[in-house]
Automatic annotation (TrEMBL):
It comes from Macrococcus psychrotolerans. GO terms for molecular function: hexosyltransferase activity. Its EC number is 2.4.-.-. The keyword Transferase applies. This is Glycosyltransferase.
Length: 343
């Protein structure tokens, strides 16, 4: 049997869609993380209209990690899936995973593909490419491309707890632990990540706290990967995934909406964390590039001073060509603005 766990926070506009997509699950657990809208009423209405039992758990607002952990504790089935309340499962995914489990029983985690959905249009994620079949994290570092809990079926007795002391990347250590077990990859798209067309300002208003959380998450994942076969390659890949594809874009988005010397101090601490461990040079270059592109003069000088004081080299066109660099910054910002207007 399969349980779908849905953490819910102010999701009255999307929870019905999520529940519709999970209807075929044997059990559905909704953990309400202190919603102040009509999420609870929408869940109860859906339950009444569909004559299907939903286990509803309420908690004071404590974050998605705590909500997922409560769902894990409440689950009694052998297998568990996670679904965010603003996303949806692909049609037929529950039955697909059940059949897959029967055909390939000797696995602990079954991994499917994710597609983005924006304005009801599907957008493939080109970076999420895995070879289907039986594998391990050591053999397939690219499994870290899908480092969140979505698009996966987990055997419940291998699950640990999500990190409750951080709110950004809190799922990384949890998922790495799971992926260090026996994994089977299916080529089927099983999960739709719905992209909101709203402003990004609210999402990145806690930039400094997110960077601090990212440092903790990075350290915890590296501690786990250090015990694996092929640990250096795995760490390099995680650096690419975390530093280049997550943190650098966090920095970019924060600097596009606010400027704060404290935030750059935290970015420098993150760079120090990278340089004292395994890291990908290209990822470090991209972080510096984004600060140079989107930071103000004071923020750029702050970072340049740190780089010069620590005598490390970067392949950074802008730092070495001030005049041409300013033109490059201007062109990039204009392109970004045009892209924002189109979206």
């Amino acid at each position: 049997m399969i349980t779908v766990i849905i953490p819910v926070y102010n999701a009255e506009a999307t929870i019905t869609r999520a529940l519709d997509s999970a209807r075929a699950a044997d059990y559905i657990i909704c953990v309400d993380d202190g919603s102040t809208d009509k999420s609870r009423e929408q869940i109860k209405l859906w339950q009444h209209q569909n004559s299907k039992q939903v286990i509803y758990i309420h908690q004071d607002n404590q974050g998605a990690a705590k909500a997922r952990n409560k769902g894990i504790i409440a689950a009694t089935s052998d297998y568990v899936m996670f679904l965010d309340s603003d996303d949806s499962l692909a049609e037929g995914v529950i039955e697909h995973f059940k059949q897959l489990r029967q055909k390939q029983p000797a696995h602990d985690v079954y991994v499917g593909h994710i597609q983005h959905m924006k304005s009801n249009k599907l957008i493939p994620i080109k970076s999420h490419t895995y070879t289907s079949g039986s594998t391990t994290l050591s053999r397939s570092p690219e499994l870290m491309q899908s480092i969140g809990p979505g698009a996966k079926l987990y055997r419940r007795d291998i699950l640990s707890q999500f990190d409750e002391d951080i709110t950004f990347c809190e799922e990384h250590a949890f998922n790495i632990k799971c992926l260090m077990n026996r994994v089977f990859v299916t080529d089927k798209v099983v999960y739709y990540y719905h992209i909101s067309t709203g402003s990004i300002t609210q999402s990145y208003q806690n930039g400094s706290e997110y960077i601090k959380d990212a440092i903790k998450a990075r350290q915890r994942v590296f501690d786990l990967l250090a015990t694996s076969q092929n640990s250096q390659e795995l760490m390099q890949y995680y650096s690419y995934r975390m530093d280049e594809l997550i943190v650098s874009y966090l920095i970019k988005h924060v600097l596009r909406v606010e400027h704060d010397e404290k935030f750059i101090d935290d970015v420098i601490r993150y760079i120090e964390e990278m340089r004292t461990s395994t890291y990908n040079n290209q990822s470090l270059n991209q972080i510096v590039l984004f600060v140079t592109l989107y930071g103000n003069k004071s923020e750029r000088q702050q970072l340049e001073h740190y780089i010069k004081a620590h005598h490390f080299k970067l392949k950074n066109y802008i730092l070495h060509h001030p005049v041409k660099g300013q033109l490059f910054i201007l062109k990039t910002r204009i392109k970004d603005k045009i892209k924002q207007l189109r979206n």
